[in-house]
Amino acid sequence: MAVGEYPFPSMPPVAGVKLATASAGIKKPGRQDVVLIELAEGSRTAGVFTLNAFCAAPVTLCREYLKAASTRYLVINSGNANACTGARGRQDAIATSEAVAKLGGVQADQVLPFSTGVIGEPLPMEKITAALPRAHESLGDTGWEAAAKAIMTTDTRPKGFTGQIQHDGHTITVNGIAKGAGMIKPNMGTMLAYIATDADIAQPVLDDLCKEAANRSFNRITIDGDTSTNDSCILMATGKAGAAGVNEAEGILYEKVRELIVRAHEYLAKCIVADGEGATKFVTLEVSGGATGDECLQVGYAVAHSPLIKTALFASDPNWGRIVAAVGYAGVPGLDANAVRIHLNDTLIVENGGRADSYTEEQGQAVMDQAEIIIRIDLGRGSSAETLWTTDLSHEYVRINADYRS
Amino acid sequence: MAVGEYPFPSMPPVAGVKLATASAGIKKPGRQDVVLIELAEGSRTAGVFTLNAFCAAPVTLCREYLKAASTRYLVINSGNANACTGARGRQDAIATSEAVAKLGGVQADQVLPFSTGVIGEPLPMEKITAALPRAHESLGDTGWEAAAKAIMTTDTRPKGFTGQIQHDGHTITVNGIAKGAGMIKPNMGTMLAYIATDADIAQPVLDDLCKEAANRSFNRITIDGDTSTNDSCILMATGKAGAAGVNEAEGILYEKVRELIVRAHEYLAKCIVADGEGATKFVTLEVSGGATGDECLQVGYAVAHSPLIKTALFASDPNWGRIVAAVGYAGVPGLDANAVRIHLNDTLIVENGGRADSYTEEQGQAVMDQAEIIIRIDLGRGSSAETLWTTDLSHEYVRINADYRS
Question: Based on the structure, what is the number of domains in chain B?
């Protein structure tokens, strides 16, 4: 199941980026499960990663390699997360980078490794290293959709974004792919996102853009509250579009590039929510009137993580009492229940500590029958606001997660 | 569904306590849905309540009445929570207390009102006040099981505890009943608990015992992470056993009474977990080796609230990677993943940042096949420890909560 239509777009090349996929047969024989991305010399790369203390070996390595050298390759496998694999996991991640480095004639620390899939199993290194030469030989400037498919785990569809801007007669392209369907939560779930542009962006500007865009997108979505060990969001800029350089966080070119990059992240994040495990609803949570942004997030996550609200959404039941209860237990100090106003889309459902006089069950039902729902919560105590995206909790979610691995 | 056998015990009277039930037909015609409890003059009462900012009108009133006067009656209805009902909700709760006060010849503030059920609907006052005289006329010193049944909502079985101690030739009895099956979380879900003893306990000692026992029981259980608007735990001491008074928090009689009261709370809390909505597993989380108790709770709740872990438990799948991931994202600052050790019952599954060398899938499967499972997490950084109880997440949970109200 998945909500709405998010068709994979037709993607033009990004100058300076080549891709390939190959089949290593990690989990299923014949499945394309390895992706190789090559960046032209002079490209710049930034990344944000899971905050999980049990972060996977490749995540630790990516952090080190990004500091040490300029990235030329990214190698991604699905089917196995190489997480909680102890010292051997680290050796395997290093060996994967070394194998790619040898093929590409670069240093090992110029190759970022990524893994997604089951936790706790050692990587099948022979299978992976056997597939890498085939991937390297077939590098080309198309293949974004094949790559998006190869990194999928419980995803039901590949996720891609493309956009272009014109500047001084040059075309700048931003392409992005992502995967992730469950275990998604603030600070990223089992999700991988790769966004590449041929804009020329200075490293400090790129680092800040990566953080800002991830924060406004992947760190604002939640499906089940779980944060995985492997999540990574990588922003790459090759500088091969021929346009002027973006050397500072100001100016018209910066603003245009920034807008497109943030939009790419937001779109991919929404694709992940809409493909949430067992999702039948796409829910936007707009929390406003907070004294701080943090308390808006606190309330938003309390609502987004409530299994009672999520099952009511699945049932298309306008059970606003469960929303009210979650707002009440979110832990906002000194919250005045009488000042809180709650809308479902444009229908006022709660004010003055209870159901709004104007509200009718028919109004609520009409909103809940839709696949895309906005829950607006005004805390009535300040001017801060935050937006989150989430899904419902369905029988299908339980089925997927009770059956996965078996 | 419910886990294990928790048969309702045969309960002796508690000297000074009378009970009755009546049918007001609040949600279903003919169902016993009103409970009246009468306490002998001179009884003392203590309570702890939900921290939800949208707490229900009766909760607010109970807090006020407990401060203002000595409680002589408790009146409880199921089928309607009288929560998020604004000014009218408060009037209705007061009117309920006044109606009982008139029947019993006491002041309104000597009558504590409680409600549980659907949020946001006004109380059907005519039905309730019509049932109260019938309840008052039938007060008697048995009827604990009938009362436990009358306060049920989605519970599948009544929950009761009884125990006695002997002291200087006197018998002291502790009886308790509780309800609650979903929406259970730290600081209490939709749960009500009434524990009565004929011990003679001074008010400050009773207040502390109530807090301590609730904290070690109802505040350590979680089913779905939701905290309701109505939760209340009431401890009553009539002093009619004839035994000596417990005037201070020391001495052999205090220790005996305290042990029995804490045991009553813990047992009722476990009954609630075992009857968790759709529960097929009873899970004990023992988190040790923490630098503080709070970080043990933080880790415990992260594991207990993870839908991925809960669905794996439902599937009897020893997917220890999901446990590791939850420990990792619980947010313990500076947690050393290599120092963490995790057992399923007595089987070591994780050490040195990965799967234990000695671990086999068969061992894990053998534990997971059981209905009662202990997950032991040693953080390896201190001497604090905490214990929580929770359940799995099943299809039945989704069915119950998607269908409730409809």
Answer: 2
pLDDT of B403 reads 66
Residues B249 and B393 occupy one common structural domain? no
**Order of strands, sheet of A232-237, starting from the edge strand that comes earlier in the sequence:** A44-49, A232-237, A192-197, A170-179, A159-167
B182 in contact with chain A, both atoms CB, cutoff 8 A: yes
- CATH number for position A196: 3.60.70.12
Which is higher by pLDDT, A401 or A216?
A216
Residue A341 is assigned to a structural domain of this protein? yes
Residue after which a domain boundary falls, among A247, A274, A301? A274
Question: For B351-388, what is each residue's pLDDT tens digit?
Answer: 998 889 999 989 999 999 999 999 999 999 999 999 99
Is B11 a member of any domain? no
Q: Considering only CB atoms, which chain B residues are within 8 Å of A321?
A: 81, 83-84, 118-120, 229
Is B167:B256 a contact under the CB 8 Å cutoff? yes
Whether the predicted interface score ipTM is above 0.85 = no
Same structural domain, A263 and A321: no
Residue A57 lies in a domain: yes
* Position A182 pLDDT exceeds 80: no
Minimum Cα–Cα distance from A355: chain B residue: B120
The model's pLDDT over A41-73, given as tens digits with 9 standing for 90+, comes to: 999 999 998 878 788 899 999 999 999 999 999
User: Which residue among A320, A340, A395 sits closest to B398, beta carbon to beta carbon?
Assistant: A395
pLDDT in tens, A271-309: 988 887 778 889 999 999 999 999 999 999 989 888 888
Are both A359 and A231 inside the same structural domain? no
Q: Check whether residue B308 and residue B226 sit in a common domain.
A: no
Catalytic residue annotation of A: 190
Range of the domain at B259: 17-274
Q: Are residues B260 and B387 in the same domain?
A: no
**Chain B residues close to A327, C-beta within 8 Å:** 53-54
User: CB contact, 8 Å: A230 with chain B?
Assistant: no
Flag the least confident range among B23-27, B149-153, B327-331, B338-342. Answer: B327-331
Q: How many other C-beta atoms lie within 10 A of the C-beta of residue A105?
A: 8
CA distance B377 to B374: 10
CATH number at residue B336: 3.10.20.340
Closest Cβ opposite residue B305 in set A225, A326, A329: A225
> Where does a domain end: A274, A294, A321?
A274
Contact A84 B350 (CB under 8 A): yes
Q: What distance in Å separates the CA atoms of residue B124 and residue A132, rounded to the nearest whole number?
A: 71
Please confirm, yes or no, whether B96 is among the known catalytic residues: no
Q: Answer whether residue B187 shows pLDDT above 50.
A: no
| B223 to chain A: closest CA residue | A307
Per the model's pLDDT, the better-predicted residue between A270 and B39 turns out to be B39
Say if B337 is an interface residue toward chain A (CB within 8 Å). yes
Of A229, A308, A324, the CB nearest to B401: A308
Query: Tokens standing for A229?
Result: 């060990």
CA distances from B349 to B29, B148, B319, B335, B390 (A): 53, 41, 10, 18, 20
Confirm whether A2 is domain-assigned: no
Calpha distance B227→A396 (Å, rounded): 25
